[in-house]
Amino acid sequence: IMSKIDKYLIFEISGCLYGVDLKYILKIKNTTKFYKLPAIGEEYLGIIELENRFIPVYNFEHKYGLDNEEKNAVIFIRYRTNEFAILITNLLDIFDIQTEEIFFEKEKTFTYIDEKKACLINLEEITEEGVS
Fold first, then answer.
1. How far apart are CA 41 and CA 30, in angstroms?
2. Long-range contacts of range 97-102, CB-CB < 8 Å, 24 or more positions apart?
3. What is the pLDDT of residues 94-109, one digit of tens each?
Protein backbone atom coordinates (compact mmCIF):
# COMPACT_ATOMS: atom_id res chain seq x y z
CA ILE A 1 0.00 0.00 0.00
CA MET A 2 1.37 3.40 -0.95
CA SER A 3 1.56 5.75 1.97
CA LYS A 4 -0.06 9.14 1.53
CA ILE A 5 1.99 12.23 2.35
CA ASP A 6 0.39 15.52 3.31
CA LYS A 7 2.07 18.83 3.99
CA TYR A 8 1.28 20.38 7.37
CA LEU A 9 2.08 23.82 8.69
CA ILE A 10 3.38 23.24 12.22
CA PHE A 11 3.22 26.00 14.81
CA GLU A 12 3.35 26.55 18.54
CA ILE A 13 0.69 27.98 20.83
CA SER A 14 1.43 28.30 24.55
CA GLY A 15 4.24 25.73 24.46
CA CYS A 16 2.27 23.06 22.54
CA LEU A 17 2.72 22.08 18.90
CA TYR A 18 -0.18 22.08 16.44
CA GLY A 19 -0.53 21.41 12.74
CA VAL A 20 -2.96 22.37 10.00
CA ASP A 21 -3.04 20.77 6.56
CA LEU A 22 -1.26 23.26 4.27
CA LYS A 23 -4.01 23.21 1.66
CA TYR A 24 -6.29 25.11 4.09
CA ILE A 25 -3.81 27.90 4.87
CA LEU A 26 -4.72 31.18 3.18
CA LYS A 27 -1.99 33.40 4.59
CA ILE A 28 0.37 33.96 7.52
CA LYS A 29 0.99 37.45 8.87
CA ASN A 30 3.38 38.79 11.49
CA THR A 31 0.74 40.67 13.42
CA THR A 32 -1.59 39.98 16.29
CA LYS A 33 -3.61 43.18 16.08
CA PHE A 34 -7.31 42.40 16.05
CA TYR A 35 -10.51 44.14 17.03
CA LYS A 36 -12.51 42.89 19.99
CA LEU A 37 -16.25 42.69 19.48
CA PRO A 38 -18.44 42.39 22.57
CA ALA A 39 -21.20 40.33 20.93
CA ILE A 40 -19.03 37.78 19.13
CA GLY A 41 -19.17 35.00 21.78
CA GLU A 42 -16.59 32.95 23.69
CA GLU A 43 -15.43 30.96 20.66
CA TYR A 44 -13.93 34.09 19.13
CA LEU A 45 -11.55 36.77 20.35
CA GLY A 46 -12.69 39.31 17.75
CA ILE A 47 -12.05 40.06 14.09
CA ILE A 48 -8.90 40.71 12.08
CA GLU A 49 -8.47 42.34 8.70
CA LEU A 50 -7.22 40.36 5.71
CA GLU A 51 -7.20 41.98 2.27
CA ASN A 52 -10.07 44.36 3.08
CA ARG A 53 -12.19 41.60 4.64
CA PHE A 54 -12.80 40.93 8.31
CA ILE A 55 -12.11 37.39 9.49
CA PRO A 56 -13.14 36.03 12.93
CA VAL A 57 -10.24 35.20 15.29
CA TYR A 58 -10.85 31.79 16.83
CA ASN A 59 -10.33 31.53 20.61
CA PHE A 60 -7.92 28.60 20.52
CA GLU A 61 -6.85 28.85 24.18
CA HIS A 62 -10.44 28.67 25.34
CA LYS A 63 -11.14 25.58 23.25
CA TYR A 64 -7.95 23.73 24.23
CA GLY A 65 -7.65 25.05 27.81
CA LEU A 66 -4.28 26.73 27.22
CA ASP A 67 -2.58 29.62 28.94
CA ASN A 68 -3.08 32.91 27.17
CA GLU A 69 0.51 33.89 26.42
CA GLU A 70 1.92 36.41 23.99
CA LYS A 71 1.34 35.72 20.31
CA ASN A 72 3.58 36.81 17.45
CA ALA A 73 1.71 35.89 14.28
CA VAL A 74 -1.64 34.96 12.83
CA ILE A 75 -2.61 32.13 10.48
CA PHE A 76 -5.60 32.60 8.19
CA ILE A 77 -7.45 29.39 7.39
CA ARG A 78 -10.14 28.56 4.84
CA TYR A 79 -11.98 25.29 5.38
CA ARG A 80 -14.81 24.64 2.92
CA THR A 81 -16.74 27.93 3.00
CA ASN A 82 -15.43 29.03 6.41
CA GLU A 83 -12.61 31.46 6.99
CA PHE A 84 -11.10 32.15 10.39
CA ALA A 85 -7.81 33.14 11.98
CA ILE A 86 -5.72 31.62 14.78
CA LEU A 87 -3.17 33.62 16.77
CA ILE A 88 0.06 31.68 17.26
CA THR A 89 3.17 31.97 19.44
CA ASN A 90 5.74 30.64 16.95
CA LEU A 91 5.73 29.30 13.43
CA LEU A 92 7.92 26.21 13.04
CA ASP A 93 7.87 25.07 9.42
CA ILE A 94 6.08 22.99 6.82
CA PHE A 95 6.50 19.25 7.34
CA ASP A 96 5.69 16.24 5.16
CA ILE A 97 3.64 13.86 7.29
CA GLN A 98 2.91 10.32 6.14
CA THR A 99 -0.36 8.60 6.99
CA GLU A 100 1.38 6.01 9.17
CA GLU A 101 3.03 8.75 11.25
CA ILE A 102 -0.40 9.89 12.46
CA PHE A 103 -2.00 8.40 15.58
CA PHE A 104 -5.15 8.95 17.63
CA GLU A 105 -5.43 9.63 21.33
CA LYS A 106 -8.50 10.82 23.27
CA GLU A 107 -10.40 11.65 20.05
CA LYS A 108 -7.57 13.87 18.81
CA THR A 109 -5.06 13.30 16.01
CA PHE A 110 -1.31 13.55 16.62
CA THR A 111 2.07 13.09 15.00
CA TYR A 112 5.65 13.57 16.17
CA ILE A 113 7.74 16.52 14.96
CA ASP A 114 11.38 16.28 16.06
CA GLU A 115 10.30 13.88 18.85
CA LYS A 116 7.69 16.34 20.16
CA LYS A 117 4.01 15.47 20.04
CA ALA A 118 2.00 17.75 17.73
CA CYS A 119 -1.80 17.89 17.61
CA LEU A 120 -3.21 17.98 14.08
CA ILE A 121 -6.20 20.30 14.25
CA ASN A 122 -9.57 18.94 13.22
CA LEU A 123 -10.95 21.87 11.21
CA GLU A 124 -14.31 20.13 10.95
CA GLU A 125 -14.64 20.37 14.73
CA ILE A 126 -13.82 24.10 14.77
CA THR A 127 -16.16 25.00 11.91
CA GLU A 128 -19.03 22.99 13.37
CA GLU A 129 -18.95 25.30 16.40
CA GLY A 130 -20.48 28.10 14.43
CA VAL A 131 -17.90 29.73 12.20
CA SER A 132 -19.88 31.22 9.37
1. 25
2. 97/5, 97/6, 97/7, 97/8, 97/19, 98/3, 98/4, 98/5, 99/3, 99/4, 99/5, 99/6, 100/3
3. 999 999 999 999 989 9
Q: Which residues, in sequence order, are bridge partners of residue 104? A: 109
Q: What is the DSSP secondary structure assignment for residue 122, as one 8-state letter?
A: -
Q: Mean pLDDT over all residues of the chain? A: 89
Task: Indicate the pTM of the whole model.
Answer: 0.89
Spell out a b/e string for 77-107, using b for 16 or more CB atoms within 10 Å of the CB, else e: bebeebbbbbbbbeebeebebeeeebeeeee
d(CA 19, CA 118): 7
- CA 63, distance to chain mean position in Å, is 11
